[in-house]
Amino acid sequence: MMPWPLNTLLLGLLAASTFAAAADAPVAVVEAKIDGNALYQTNCASCHGADRLGLNGPALLPGNLERLRRPEAIKTIAEGRIATQMPGFSDKLNAAEVKALTDLIYTPLASTPVWGLKEMQASRIAHQTNKLPDTPVFTADPLNLFIVVELGDHHATILDGDKFEPITRFATRYALHGGPKFSPDGRYVYFASRDGWVAKYDIWNLTLISEIRVGINTRNLAISSDGRYAMIANYLPHSMVVLDTQDLRPVKIIDVKDDSGKSSRVSAVYDAAPRNSFIAALKDIPEVWEFSYTDKNGTPSFQPRRIQLDDYVDDFFFDGSYTHLIGSSRGGVGQVIDLNAGKRITTVALPGMPHLGSGITWAYQGKPVLATPNLKEGVVTVVDMTNWQIEKQIPTLGPGFFMRSHENTPYAWVDVFNGTKDRDVIQIIDKQKLEVIAQLRPSPGKVAAHTEFSRDGKYALVSIWENDGELVIYDAKTLQVVKRLPMKKPSGKYNVFNKITRSAGTSH
Ligand code: HEC
Q1: Cα 356 to Cα 365: distance, rounded to the nearest angstrom
Q2: 21 occurs within a structural domain
Q3: How does residue 291 score in pLDDT terms, banded at 50, 70 and 90?
Q4: Which candidate among 234, 317, 382, 413 keeps its CA 20 to 30 Å from the CA of 303?
């Protein structure tokens, strides 16, 4: 239903009377008079910020709105969003005005906004400063919990991984991004949001500890294996930020630039625990940066060790020893980078667009293999990691996104998330036969994605990716459904034990 027939009519009447006075002025003149910026300041700035960087409403900048299609933006502005503070404007603004506002929010700011130490410090909120008990306030196994991120209404649920009962559910910042990360003991979980907010949450006490905004558009965060530091990868500004995990105070801000002064967005940062370092891939400079955090004499310098490459690394993945980084380039080639030697040692022909960020490894015929779903083609590619040759291309129903397994199961689970059909299917691959042996339809007609295993690998949890979605819990052996839990677009779920022990079946 179009929400503005009355307004359009009124505009028509207004325009008609204007025309009567101003002779034959063409309609275009009326349209050109719409000042999107003025409309924005009057109607939107109070919630989204005069600079569009966000306040209690999210940031409205092209990078941040990457996942929001224009028609959806128009609908949001006209109709608002039910059960949120976003009001509808169809009774105030006509279609042309809504379009002008939409054009405005997809236009970059005239100059890159500053988000430095001062802005970060001013944003920091210490929600809890008292020392809290060092024992969980619940009886569930604290290592077999799942954090479920519910993007539908921006909440997170802590789920008991034995009983599959929610322990608590709390509001998060708008649009979490990149997967939450745990402290090494599994007590704290850290979240990063699309708009640059980092939060520290005490799982044992079910309490939010502190928050800080470290960027305007953020990709993800990593936690050092000693638990002391968080490192954040930003798209905007072109920076990386190191925080002290104790209280989320900034330790260092790194401007990301090459020798010529060209700056770059940062695609992602991960912890490379055996190396005691963070590794980051740059989006606009063909380099990978490593930041060591072992400094026995105090604060590490966080000076990047720059590995210069011939090609960009978009999405990446480590081998079991963290000696090699396998990254996808823009041209659909896998680059194998020896992190010790600091150079590319070989390439792997990976057709389509492999999603290496979701790659997993296992032992096949006594050798390590890596398997990656493909964002463009209906195939899972299995690569022999001893010689970097393709072992097998396993045909699937369509392009996938997430692939998961566990040390205690013979199967790997892959979705058809990027397909044009069969998006409701999860396919089960036998890790020794290297073929699809079963196919599940957890909720026919509804998109199924992102599997994660329980601590012992006995259960697999699959998301039904809808606003009124659910978690479907399977017995990983019999492939029978054991439970269904309603959730608001449960985009991902993260098992404490599997993450902190860096299980080979999941991303880290
Ligand atoms: C009273 C506060 C408020 C006002 C005024 C307001 N918004 Fe919003 N807006 C919000 C909130 C809160 C959200 C997040 C809604 C949600 O949780 O989905 C939002 C979401 C949006 C989104 C979706 C962003 C995304 O990433 O999906 C757009 C687009 C948007 N607003 C545009 C506007 C425009 C344009 C105006 C002015 C005409 C405006 N808003 C006025 C509070 C407000």
Answers
A1: 22
A2: yes
A3: very high
A4: 317
CATH of the domain at 61: 1.10.760.10
Transcribe 415-449 into DSSP letters.
E-TT-SS-TT-EEEEETTTTEEEEEE-SSTTS-EE
Domains held by the chain: number: 1
DSSP assignments along 353-367, one per residue? -B-GGG-EEEEETTE
Ligand 1 atom 43: residue of nearest CA: 86
Per-residue pLDDT tens digits for 42-74: 999 999 999 999 999 999 999 999 999 999 999
Alpha-carbon torsion (163, 166, 172, 175), positive or negative: positive
367 lines ligand 1 (CB under 6 A): no
Which residue is it, tokens 């459904």?
481
**Per-residue b or e along 348-380, where b marks 16 or more CB atoms closer than 10 Å to that residue's CB:** bebeebbbbbbbbbbebeeebbbbbbbbebbbb
**Ligand 1 binding pocket includes 76 (Cβ within 6 Å):** yes
How many Å separate Cα 104 from the centre of its chain?
Answer: 25
Q: Is residue 425 part of a domain?
A: no
pTM (2 d.p.):
0.91
77/80 Cα distance (integer angstroms): 5
| Of the candidates 207, 203, 235, the residue with the CA atom closest to the CA atom of residue 219 | 235
**169-189, pLDDT tens digit by residue?**
999 999 999 899 999 999 999
Binding site membership of 104 for ligand 1 (Cβ less than 6 Å): no
Of 34, 41, 42, 48, the residue with max ligand 1 atoms within 8 A of its CB, to mutate for a pocket test, comes to 48
Range of the domain at 44: 5-105
506 burial class (0-12, 13-18, 19+ CB within 10 angstroms)?
A: buried
**C-alpha span between 20 and 436 (Å, rounded):** 71
Q: Is residue 461 part of a domain?
A: no
Q: Is 441 a domain residue?
A: no
Beta strands in 17-154 (DSSP E): 125-126, 145-150
Instruction: Report how far residue 381's alpha carbon sits from residue 474's, in angstroms, rounded to the nearest whole number.
Output: 25
